[in-house]
């Protein structure tokens, strides 16, 4: 592999500059492998760095023509396309032309998303064929709609060389310039925009060079020279990192699935069968679903590295259930990472395989603090504070340049015997405080309930109430198979073993008796993010009236079986 001039500048490299550099010095190096069609049987095609750089230049020319030249003020455009390489191409083409791009998530309400676009003074909404939202729905809101060529036309492999558009700024000049705007998931409030600057990206670049801690290597070193399939949403921070930043800075070969196929156990199985990759980056929710099937699990175990976590756009980060991880860690290398849109990825380290569910935070990076909580002496809240040894390795203070500290709102517990190992428990705003002031975090209990093969999701409620309760959503096909004769007794007989297991890991005051479990209405499905995480607060709000009706029964007891 050709040595590049920029390799001596880790942490001061700029994406558009490095891509053009590789295109010049090592043009045949493969950036990505993409499917030829929606059917994996049709095979795949390689996209070299020369192909990728040409596509970026081709779309830079498109920006030049469509918007009358470069922007001098980082005007905003929104890109909306199918989940494919087009997101990376359009992001960098806009960057070369002085624009910043909103990577819109239409998992949010259309009204909320449009309000964000107006707040950002969006100049135009760029739509590619295959995006799930009909642009005609947007026209009436007064934001200009612009159609963009397809991915095949962007790449135009074998076509004429486009005019080169050069990104001329140095790192010092571009560090605080915006690259993209990401939209949060809006799980606990209305969505908001987060500015991702070039300095934000540089922190991810430095993740490869975090100093070792007690002989441990930083987690990010596992990405170097791998073949990675990262099916995280292209409009999320995790997608930006997994499909653009890591491949460019780690010489990671990016693998793509067909853009028209949703992530599922079947797709995971077929991808493993049809194309080689030695690493996959998945959300805990997807791993949990895959591992429930012996056949799917056997496929996943063929992959050398299963990385989970990702960047969650300030939505609730769901830990991988212990039972799920314990079923696969001896067959494949299971690696956890954690971050958010605001932070990018926090610097964590490789651990002993049996400690797969813990995060190792280095004592040599004191800017990452664990502060005791008031409600539970065993829980600690993570807080990021300014520290010269730590700041280069996360993006917090590029997102919040005027802040001195940032409360992450994540809760952890110490390993019972090993220092510097921390177990992620959940979000501080997931904590349930009962009417007597006692509190508990329900996420581990919910994970146990999800282990039942019937269960798609579970949410535990009880904020300000005498006792907690659980609402359980069955998979749609299970509802259909069980039929209308399925009753309360059958439900409790089916779910009770998992309920007992959930109670075992809860404090005694959070135990739930049989009359505290409810089956969700099949016609009122829970709310989920694009990454598959349950949107706790929106789901509870969906059932707000039913919850209040039930809790109004004397002593918090009820005889009804469904909400």
UniProtKB/TrEMBL annotation:
<protein>
    <recommendedName>
        <fullName>AMP-dependent synthetase/ligase domain-containing protein</fullName>
    </recommendedName>
</protein>
<keyword id="KW-0596">Phosphopantetheine</keyword>
<dbReference type="InterPro" id="IPR020845">
    <property type="entry name" value="AMP-binding_CS"/>
</dbReference>
<dbReference type="Pfam" id="PF00501">
    <property type="entry name" value="AMP-binding"/>
</dbReference>
<dbReference type="InterPro" id="IPR042099">
    <property type="entry name" value="ANL_N_sf"/>
</dbReference>
<keyword id="KW-0597">Phosphoprotein</keyword>
<dbReference type="InterPro" id="IPR051414">
    <property type="entry name" value="Adenylate-forming_Reductase"/>
</dbReference>
<feature type="domain" description="AMP-dependent synthetase/ligase">
    <location>
        <begin position="43"/>
        <end position="367"/>
    </location>
</feature>
<dbReference type="Pfam" id="PF23562">
    <property type="entry name" value="AMP-binding_C_3"/>
</dbReference>
<dbReference type="InterPro" id="IPR000873">
    <property type="entry name" value="AMP-dep_synth/lig_dom"/>
</dbReference>
């Amino acid at each position: 592999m050709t040595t590049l001039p920029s390799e001596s500048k880790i942490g001061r490299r700029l994406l558009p500059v490095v891509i053009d550099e590789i295109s010049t010095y090592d043009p045949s190096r493969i950036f990505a492998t993409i499917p030829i069609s929606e059917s994996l049987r049709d095979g795949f095609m390689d996209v070299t760095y020369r192909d990728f750089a040409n596509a970026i230049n081709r779309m830079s020319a498109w920006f030049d023509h469509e918007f009358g030249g470069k922007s001098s003020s980082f005007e905003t455009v929104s890109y909306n396309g199918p989940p494919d390489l087009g997101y990376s191409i359009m992001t960098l083409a806009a960057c070369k032309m002085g624009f910043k791009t909103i990577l819109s998530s239409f998992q949010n309400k259309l009204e909320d998303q449009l309000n964000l676009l107006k707040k950002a003074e969006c100049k135009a909404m760029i739509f590619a064929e295959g995006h799930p939202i009909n642009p005609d729905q947007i026209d009436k809101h007064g934001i200009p709609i612009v159609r963009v060529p397809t991915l095949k036309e962007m790449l135009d492999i074998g076509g004429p060389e486009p005019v080169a558009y050069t990104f001329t700024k140095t790192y010092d000049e571009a560090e605080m310039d915006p690259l993209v705007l990401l939209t949060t998931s809006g799980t606990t409030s209305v969505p908001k925009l987060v500015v991702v600057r070039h300095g934000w990206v540089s922190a991810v670049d430095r993740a490869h060079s975090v100093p070792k801690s007690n002989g441990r290597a930083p987690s990010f070193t596992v990405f170097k020279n791998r073949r990675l399939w990262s099916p995280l949403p292209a409009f999320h921070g995790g997608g930006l990192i997994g499909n653009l930043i890591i491949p460019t800075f780690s010489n990671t070969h990016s693998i793509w699935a067909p853009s028209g196929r949703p992530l599922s156990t079947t797709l995971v199985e077929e991808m493993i069968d049809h194309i080689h990759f030695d690493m996959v980056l998945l959300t805990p929710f997807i791993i949990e679903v895959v591992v429930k099937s012996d056949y799917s699990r056997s496929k996943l175990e063929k992959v050398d590295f299963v990385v989970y976590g990702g960047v969650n756009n300030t939505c609730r980060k769901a830990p991988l259930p212990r039972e799920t991880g314990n079923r696969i860690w001896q067959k494949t290398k299971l690696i956890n990472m954690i971050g958010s849109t605001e932070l990018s990825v926090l610097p964590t380290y490789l651990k002993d395989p049996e400690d797969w569910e813990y995060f190792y935070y280095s004592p040599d990076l004191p800017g990452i603090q664990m502060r005791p909580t008031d409600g539970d002496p065993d829980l600690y809240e993570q807080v990021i504070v300014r520290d010269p040894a730590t700041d280069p390795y996360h993006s917090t203070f590029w997102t919040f340049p005027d802040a001195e500290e940032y409360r992450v709102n994540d809760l952890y517990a110490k390993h019972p015997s090993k220092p510097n190992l921390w177990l992620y428990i959940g979000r501080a705003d997931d904590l349930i405080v009962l009417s007597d002031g006692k509190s508990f975090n329900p996420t581990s209990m919910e994970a146990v309930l999800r282990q039942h093969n019937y269960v798609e999701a579970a949410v535990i409620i009880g904020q300000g109430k005498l006792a907690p309760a659980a609402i359980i959503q069955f998979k749609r096909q299970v509802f259909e198979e069980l039929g209308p004769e399925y009753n309360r007794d059958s439900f409790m007989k089916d779910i009770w073993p998992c309920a007992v297991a959930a109670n075992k890991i809860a404090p005694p005051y959070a135990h739930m008796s049989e009359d505290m479990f409810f089956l969700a209405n099949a016609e009122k499905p829970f709310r989920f993010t694009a990454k598959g995480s349950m949107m706790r607060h929106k789901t509870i709000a969906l059932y707000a009236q039913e919850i209040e009706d039930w809790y109004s029964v004397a002593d918090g007891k009820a005889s009804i079986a469904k909400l």
